[in-house]
Design goal:
The structure holds two protein chains of two kinds.
Chain A: H1 4-21, H2 41-51, H3 59-71, H4 74-79, H5 81-92, H6 94-103, H7 113-125, H8 131-134, H9 136-169, H10 173-176, H11 188-200, H12 208-212, H13 215-222, E1 229-233, H14 242-246, H15 276-280, E2 286-290, H16 310-332, H17 361-367, H18 373-377, E3 383-385, E4 398-400, H19 413-417, H20 428-433, E5 438-441, H21 457-461, E6 467-470, E7 479-482, H22 492-496, E8 505-508, H23 520-526
Chain B: H1 9-12, H2 23-44, E1 58-62, H3 65-74, E2 88-93, H4 100-103, H5 109-121, E3 126-131, H6 137-147, E4 156-158, E5 165-169, E6 179-183, H7 184-188, E7 191-195, E8 197-201, E9 205-207, H8 209-212, H9 221-226, H10 228-239, E10 243-252, E11 263-272, H11 275-285, H12 299-306, E12 319-323
Parallel strand pairs in B: 1-12, 2-3, 2-7, 3-4, 7-10, 8-10
Antiparallel strand pairs in B: 1-11, 5-6, 8-9, 10-11
Classes of the chains: A mainly alpha, B alpha/beta.
Amino acid sequence: MISSQRIIQGLSLTVFVAALCQAPRALLSLWPADGFIRLDPLVFLGTALADRQFAPLLWVAAAVLLLALVLGRFFCAYLCPLGTTLDITDRLLCAQRKARLKKRAGPPLRSYQNHVLLYILGAAVLGISLVFFASPLSLITRFYGLIIYPLGAFLADMGLTALRPAADRLDLTTLAYAVVKAPRYDLQWLTLLLLLGIFAGGLWSPRFWCRYLCPSGALLALFAIKPLVRRRVSGDCTKCGLCVEKCPMGAIGGPGADGSEHPDLTRHKECIACLSCVRICPVQAVSFDLKPPWEIPGPDAILPDTGESAAGERRRLLAAGLSGAATAMVSLTGLKSPHAEPGPGSIVHPSVIRPPGAVPENDFLARCIRCGACLTACPTNTLQPLGLAAGLTAFFSPVVTPRRGPCDPGCHACGAVCPTGAIPWLPPAERRSAKVGTARLDRRKCLAWEFDKKCLICDEVCPYDAVEFRVVPGQPVPVPFIREYKCAGCGYCEHHCPVRAVPAIVVTPMLALRLAEGSHREMAREMGYSLEVGKKMDGPPNYPGQDASTPPELDENGLPPGFTE
Amino acid sequence: MRFHPSPDPLTETVSFVDRKLNRRQFLKFQFKGALWLAAGAALLSRPLALQAGAVPDISVVKGDTGAATRAAVAQLGGMQAFVKPGDRVVIKPNMSFGNGTANASNTTPEVVRELVAMTKEAGAARVRVLDNTLSQPGPSIADIKAACGIFNEDIVHALNDYSFYQPTKLNDSWLGFNKTDVMQDVLKADCLIAAPTAKSHSSTGVSLSMKGMMGLVHDRWTMHQQGLDKAIVTLAAFLKPKLVVVDATRVLSTNGPRGPGKIIPMNTVIASADMVAADAKTVEMCTWYGKRFKPRQIKHIRLAHEAGLGRMDIENLTIKQTEV
């Protein structure tokens, strides 16, 4: 019979994956795509520390922590999608693990959970968020959203293509024309290898990641030293040791004074309340009950985690925290660090075009946990993970990549799924004013300017009407001009520009609106921008640096663009 | 929904868009339509009875959109002159832009709907309305898809995915634009009907039936690199629709192809079996940027004429002009 744990786990994982993969329609879905990510206690604490404020969306993780006082690390056993995935991969690796352990059983491993946690918090104290290194929800969202989802879409597309001739013959029109656009993501091997490494821990022990590395587990453990509902063993216990052997977390028993196993003792900080021990106990001696503390017959816990001296452990934990702080400091001294003071001398990489509505860069990096939910949600696939162009602290953060896809002014799926408010969701009118950059024309590459070809694609595709073709004396064909005050940096022009390699029209993050608060619409108006989709400009433009010598609309023969004598 | 059925005699009997027709209603509607058309033709074309019997080179009809579309094709001998029973038909309207109906940068949905109805009456086995849309396919084709909803069939599609295209040799030349990826449905079709909207185009002057053929290939970017006017003629020579129906009910006379620009209501539909003649007549009839132009002033029309693809010398062609 399937245990209730497996049922809840299965349901949770299904909801998690379904919400994530239909993230392109995030606004319609009932369960938010970031619903699970917001439960991660490390995302809550790490982001709050680095960002110097508590993000309103993340308070639900605080509830998970407080619930640990009552229910222990139930999150790990029932809700965490990484935990569930590990249960699956551990099952697949079961045979190999047993073969390994038969050959040579190594000494018991030490848990580095607290060290990982302190490393991340150490960096967060200095305002650098390294949450993405080890947040379980960030890791697993990347796995399903950036590896499994594109693979699934790719397979579906292959299937549809294979079915197409048959569907066409049978006049199943909708099927015959159905297309699944598989997204493509940069750095996918890195995403995959990291997760495969975590899965490979199953060769040593089940739930290797949860036992030894997971910083969120460490946070939960702090609240689960003696949860109210916890494992209790009655006097019926025959000390058969089955539970000690089967516990996926290795949380039961341990060398007693006489060197024997003690199935009646539990390390509650490591127990995830999966209830395996309850289910397998041959004499039903194990229960998880809510009992007042005074009714507990004897000691039920093993408090010291290891035989190590407490002082040695303290030193190591301190070192971990200091290493995190040191990592942050080294990052801050990097040339490309976006945390430098603004003004001359600070380098903004031209490819770092942030999603529309992204908060100012430092806040953005403090909040972004690189879960990739926005990348999965983006319907045009324009959002891609950044490499090292802006240094380690901006690694894997999302950037608009117009060459791959335009950033649709009618869409704010990225804002709808962002769990931490790095990209706050904006209502449509605000969204359209959320300028992400400005297009720049390289006349020396432009087909019209340089090669005298009648090309007008940038004008044709611009939803903001920010490209204008004019007849210019000396130019045999109409040539494009960018009206910067109308450009929102959506990148339709760059995406469609027929000039290969570096296109003739390129969006850079220049003049992007990055507001911590307030209205993008108001700010755009304040700056003299006219960011309207598909609307005619009313009145003459008024913006700083405007070119007063507007070339004539008609050429010297009085002909409009495209007409000849 | 921006599209509203107009109260012309063909459509006032049955409201189209809001409910779907069953087969019986549809046939009844067709019958009534044919009656009205016969009556209209008998009454209105009397002054032109001199030409009766001869099929004109160009048919120009002014009137309510649906009726004008029908009459324009009827004057060329009816759809059965172009579509044989059992034919596979592809109709290529302009439907590249999300707000295209409002901006007059997409073909009026009613024109497309009437064309689909006529091809079905003529016995077409399969009708598809296809385009490779420039912007997001969903909103771009929405209005035309809704208008064609009455046929209870999935007819209207934006085919932007490469898997719908097939590498095709356009001509035997080994220089320049000689091969491209063409929509498979078009290659397999027995009859291609171009249904462009009349609009200006800031690089080719106007965008009509010949320019519209660019929506049936996958890589139109290359065409800009090759020199657009020449490439348009090369492609049109290969695809060459059997029938061209230009929707000049509302003409986007400036700031095309996307708009928004100045829209001039003309309530006119122009049809011809000669794509160059249809385009030439449209250029001549409409006002562009506040002025009138000769067809030869559009370079791709001139090149097509010179290449013998069709005729732009409309003064030498027979034109049947009516009102419904």
